[in-house]
Structure prediction request, 323 residues.
Amino acid sequence: MAAIPAVPVRPVVSAHPAISATGLTKSYGDKAVLKGVDLDIPAGSVFALLGPNGAGKTTVVQILSTLIPADGGSARVAGHDVEREADGVRKAIGVTGQFSAVDNLLTAEENLMLMADLNHLRRREGRRRTEELLRVFDLTEASGKPVTTFSGGMRRKLDLAMTLVGDPKVIFLDEPTTGLDPRSRRTMWEIIRGLVADQGVTIFLTTQYLEEADQLADRIAVLDGGRIVAEGTAEELKRFVPGGWIRLRFADAGRLATAAALFEYAEADSESLRLDIPGDNSVLTVRAVLEALDNASVQAESLVVETADLDDVFLRLTGEGVR
Prediction:
């Protein structure tokens, strides 16, 4: 059965991008970290940047958030040039890094009030914003407790809440759920979805959790070797990589053997009476399989179509997969 064709996935150019970049380069000594990165991220969306360790994900975030300069190329965030209008960029963004930036000696409320002061909010407005964020992040009961008593999930929620004090238009989340247990990670996902749906912010997410990107991102880019090697929706990227299966299960070994003889590259498991046929999830492919079985007078007990997931995409497009 024919494999899924590998169709190039191109970035979508938005009319009013929240983030745009052209030809970003960055080197440290003789090591080129970024080799010409292009980005175009619509406002009010979640964009995920995937890549192995050392691919340059954090470097992209640092350049776009004005923490370090690029060696070449240009970028704009919230309508401001990151080099010439750095102050405008900083006023429009929030950044949550891989490691919590909260002050362990302060309470949750004191951390938020400190951030309000740093954002030059009036005292009354800072108090209002603090109470609002404590409520949104379900930290009201713990507001007077020192951060040293917080769990990892509570600390990350407070970290993100502090990022929102200044009411940013664009939020950079650099591996925001690192070290969290599955329940806390899903809580963070719900919060991130709510930020986009309720407040219309733009989220730039870097992560090594492929399920996280699959769950949250409107578009995903894969960074490897300093370049964007693929970009698209999760479904587009999954179709980009061959690797789907049509899995059939039969009532007995005889029917399994008859069916296995019909498909050249099928893999039969006599113990589970399952037949795995490589192919895509298109209606035409599934129909062709069913017609072949019908012509041979073989009936399957069940049929399940499984497509490639982001793990397959990641492994195929990065590192050893490329080589």
